């Protein structure tokens, strides 16, 4: 579980995050949603420690990331897996070299052990025969799968995904969402997904935080989202034409 308490962050005197608190639960994807430029990525960066908040704290299973000592920070960092927007694969490395990269840089594992782990992760994401392929030979969905395999190769307790569906068609997006949901459950990870994709929200949104102009305005599940009585969120979700037509039918 990850808990954020009263996070605030300004850039050049401009408040971007305003006193955001929330709990991200273990074993499921927790979605951070909201319009463009509203502070979702800054929130994620504060949680991961890429940006230091001006105020507030981030607790990883009760370990305070910013107040903790150096060893605590290093330990937490090692328990984090990241799926970057666009996959962020190394173009000059094969699929298996990409997936093995965190093991090469962060562990002292023996070669065979690494190979076993890489093969396990590639199989888990449905790419068991792609070891020797180059990223240029892969579809967008396959690249995301490689990114997911790399993110989980170090057996993380926490998985962060920034817009995992960007650039994917709706059907592939659903498959990637379901994969993220399944591995979060299987490995009991606390997963945080930043998205503005309403398909993801209605598909895997068991826990959702809605951010509006740097504030958390609502927290709940996909079943509660259509009757939240929060006008700003209605404006956001019903801007989507499919959602809007569903509302008209209700
Ligand atoms: N390092 C930075 N320095 C100054 N301003 C920043 C910095 N990082 C983000 N911002 C600003 O903070 C605001 C929120 O940005 P953020 O990337 O969190 O939005 P977002 O909700 O993730 O949007 P999108 O969905 O478009 O990615 C933006 O106005 C952005 O310009």
TrEMBL record:
Signal peptide range: none
Matches recorded under SMART domains: AAA
Stated name of the protein: ATP-binding cassette domain-containing protein
Xref: Pfam families: ABC_tran
Gene3D superfamilies, per the entry: P-loop containing nucleotide triphosphate hydrolases
Domain ABC transporter: 2-238
Keywords: ATP-binding, Nucleotide-binding, Transport
PANTHER family: INTERMEMBRANE PHOSPHOLIPID TRANSPORT SYSTEM ATP-BINDING PROTEIN MLAF, PROTEIN TRIGALACTOSYLDIACYLGLYCEROL 3, CHLOROPLASTIC
UniProt-recorded Gene Ontology molecular function terms: ATP binding
Record InterPro entries: AAA+_ATPase, ABC_transporter-like_ATP-bd, ABC_transporter-like_CS, P-loop_NTPase
């Amino acid at each position: 579980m990850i808990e954020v308490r009263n996070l605030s962050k300004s850039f050049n005197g401009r408040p971007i995050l305003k006193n955001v608190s929330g709990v991200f639960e273990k074993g499921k994807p927790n979605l951070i949603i909201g319009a463009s430029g509203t502070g979702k990525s800054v929130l994620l960066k504060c949680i991961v420690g890429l940006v230091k908040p001006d105020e507030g704290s981030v607790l990883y299973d009760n370990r305070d990331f910013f107040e903790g000592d150096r060893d605590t920070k290093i330990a937490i960092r090692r328990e984090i897996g990241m799926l970057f927007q666009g996959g962020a694969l190394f173009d000059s490395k094969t699929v298996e070299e990409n997936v093995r990269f965190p093991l090469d840089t962060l562990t002292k594992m023996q070669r065979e052990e690494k190979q076993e782990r890489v093969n396990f992760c590639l199989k888990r994401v449905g790419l068991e025969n792609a070891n020797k392929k180059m990223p240029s030979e892969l579809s967008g969905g396959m690249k995301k799968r490689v990114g997911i395999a790399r993110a989980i190769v170090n057996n993380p307790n926490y998985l962060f995904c920034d817009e995992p569906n960007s650039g994917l068609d709706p059907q592939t997006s659903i498959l990637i969402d379901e994969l993220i949901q399944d591995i979060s459950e299987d490995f009991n990870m606390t997963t945080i997904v930043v998205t503005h994709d309403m398909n993801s929200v209605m598909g895997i949104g068991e826990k959702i935080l809605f951010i509006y102009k740097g504030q958390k305005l609502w927290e709940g599940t996909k079943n509660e989202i259509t009757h939240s009585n929060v006008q700003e969120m209605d404006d956001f979700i019903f801007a989507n034409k499919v959602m809007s037509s569903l509302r008209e039918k209700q």
